């Protein structure tokens, strides 16, 4: 019998149970996957707490993983047994040694990328791709602000944006994380606990403001992030690690300079098969040529996922976190 981390109710890390789990045989259009690595993401916390409900309880957490195809169901032709593949996004179910998943959500891995790397980069890397090309088309000479610059998404965004020729400003929580951010192409790491980050951004930009802000922190940073933007700049709110953003009177956007605001999701940007493949291709390309390096900051056994969640919520992690089944 295989094992998985399941929740029978929502709540804190203690609701996660390491228990027997049989995913069954793959149905039509599905693949049964032997998982070699699983990615940890903040959306897993949202599913665990019930902020974003799972389809049903009991349920298996996790939206990102990589491994080897064991068997395929009827009608599957894109992948075959023995293929190394990865995925990121719905349906949940990654926190398992073996799982079934729709074949159309899988991408085959190049030989140059390990399954551990893939599990640490698919969701974050494809998120970085839609942030930099979909929400706002970052180009040479642009100035961007990325919150949590030493985190999984922040590290990839900083490297990729720097490769595009943008000037990267980032917020971090410690001197150690400032060093990590700088090594990843963040030209101006700001320790938000020591200074007013909005004032610092205005100082760095000579009062002009940045072209785009990428904010995964939410409640604690949202309003000050608006103050970092140039007129007609773009605010991208793609997470809420500190809590949900309060309801907004949209006139604020006009008052602060005719700002644009978007709340995107990877699921929307990769809903079509061709878009998923485009995101993965571009990610594999920048990683393959060394423009973006995927750093696995820490690994945990899958059965220790509760401890990994605690460390993530307490901001003890850096870069990407991988769970090993």
How would you summarize the topology of this molecule?
Blueprint: E1 2-7, E2 16-21, E3 30-39, H1 42-49, E4 59-60, E5 64-72, E6 84-88, E7 98-102, E8 107-108, H2 115-119, H3 122-135, E9 143-146, H4 152-164, E10 167-172, H5 175-183, E11 188-191, H6 197-204, E12 210-215, H7 222-226, E13 229-237, H8 251-255, E14 260-262, H9 266-269, H10 273-288, E15 296-301, H11 305-313, E16 320-324
Parallel strand pairs: 9-10, 9-12, 10-11, 12-13, 13-14, 15-16
Antiparallel strand pairs: 1-2, 1-4, 3-5, 3-7, 3-16, 5-6, 6-8
Helix pairs in contact: 3-4, 3-10
Please tell me about this protein's structure:
β10 (167-172), α5 and β11 form a beta-alpha-beta unit. The protein is built from 11 helices and 16 strands. Strands 3, 5, 6, 7, 8, 15 and 16 form a 7-stranded mixed sheet that branches. It has a 6-stranded parallel sheet with strand order 11-10-9-12-13-14, sandwiched between helices. It has a 3-stranded antiparallel sheet with strand order 2-1-4, with no helix packed on it. The chain has helices spanning 42-49, 115-119, 122-135, 152-164, 175-183, 197-204, 222-226, 251-255, 266-269, 273-288, 305-313, and strands spanning 2-7, 16-21, 30-39, 59-60, 64-72, 84-88, 98-102, 107-108, 143-146, 167-172, 188-191, 210-215, 229-237, 260-262, 296-301, 320-324. It is 30% helix and 27% strand. 46% of the residues are buried. The chain folds into 2 domains: 2-121 and 294-324, Medium-chain alcohol dehydrogenases, catalytic domain (Quinone Oxidoreductase, Chain A, domain 1); 124-266, 3-Layer(aba) Sandwich (Rossmann fold), CATH 3.40.50.720. The two termini are 14 Å apart. The chain is an alpha/beta fold and 325 residues long. Keywords: NADP, Oxidoreductase.
């Amino acid at each position: 019998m295989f094992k998985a981390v399941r929740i029978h109710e929502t709540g804190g890390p203690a609701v996660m149970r390491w228990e027997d789990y049989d995913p069954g045989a793959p149905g039509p259009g599905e693949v049964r996957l032997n998982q070699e690595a699983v990615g940890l993401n903040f959306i897993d916390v949202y599913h665990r707490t019930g902020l974003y409900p799972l389809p049903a309880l009991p349920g298996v957490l996790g939206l990102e993983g990589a491994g080897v195809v064991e068997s395929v169901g009827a009608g599957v032709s894109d992948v075959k047994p023995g293929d190394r593949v990865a995925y990121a996004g719905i349906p949940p179910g990654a926190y398992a040694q073996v799982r079934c998943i729709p074949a159309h959500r899988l991408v085959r891995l190049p030989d140059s990328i390990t399954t551990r790397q893939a599990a640490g980069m698919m969701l974050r890397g494809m998120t970085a791709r839609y942030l930099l090309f979909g929400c706002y088309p970052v180009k040479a000479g642009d100035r961007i602000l990325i919150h949590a610059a030493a985190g999984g998404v922040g590290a990839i965004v900083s490297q990729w944006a720097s490769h595009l020729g943008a000037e990267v400003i980032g917020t971090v929580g410690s001197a150690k994380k400032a060093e990590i951010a700088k090594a990843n192409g963040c030209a101006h790491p700001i320790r938000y606990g020591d200074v007013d980050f909005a004032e610092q951004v205005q100082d760095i930009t000579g009062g002009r403001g940045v072209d785009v802000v990428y904010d995964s922190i939410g409640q604690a940073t949202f309003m000050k992030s608006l103050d970092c933007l140039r007129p007609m700049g773009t605010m991208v709110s793609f997470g809420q690690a500190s809590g949900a953003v309060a309801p907004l009177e949209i006139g604020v956007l006009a008052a602060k300079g005719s700002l644009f605001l978007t709340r995107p999701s990877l699921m929307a940007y990769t809903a079509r098969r061709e878009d998923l493949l485009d995101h993965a291709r571009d990610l594999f390309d920048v990683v393959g040529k060394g423009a973006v390096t995927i750093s696995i900051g820490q690994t945990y056994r899958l059965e220790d996922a509760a401890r990994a969640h605690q460390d993530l919520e307490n901001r003890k992690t850096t870069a990407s976190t991988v769970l090993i089944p």
